[in-house]
Amino acid sequence: MGPTKTRVVARASDVLARLGGDEFALFIPNLSSEKDSCEMTARLRKAVATINSPHPDVHISASIGFAVFPDEVRSSSELLRLADERMYQDKRSAETPSGQSRSQRGGHQRQRCAAAVPSQYPMLPAGSV
Fold this sequence. Notes:
single chain, two-stranded antiparallel ribbon, DGC-Regulatory_Protein, disordered C terminus, mainly alpha, Rev_trsase/Diguanyl_cyclase
C-alpha cells in the first residue's frame, strides 16, 4: 500500500514498518479494544480495495492479522507472532477453493470483526479485496 493510502487509514501517531518483502506492520498505539482493531482492519481493507491494477488480470488484495497488547499478549514478540499467525489464517482462508465467499471462510478474526465493526466501516464483499 502506498504512502497516500496509508495516510488515509493511519493516524499521525501510528507507525508503519516494512518487515520484509511484501509484509508490513502497522503499530497503532492507544487502541482500547478488539473492536478498534476490527475498525482499523476494515479501513485497511477498504483502502486496499481502492487500489487499481494497471493489468486487468492482476487483482490486488491484502491478508491482515492483528493482535491487541496487552489484552491478548504480554510482549512485542508475542504481538508480532499472533498478528502474523492471524494474517496467515486470513491468507489461507482467501485461498481455500471451497465455493464459499471469503467472508464465509475468513476464519475467527473476520467473524469476530464482522460483529464488531460499525456501519461506517463495513466489511467488504468477497472478491473486493
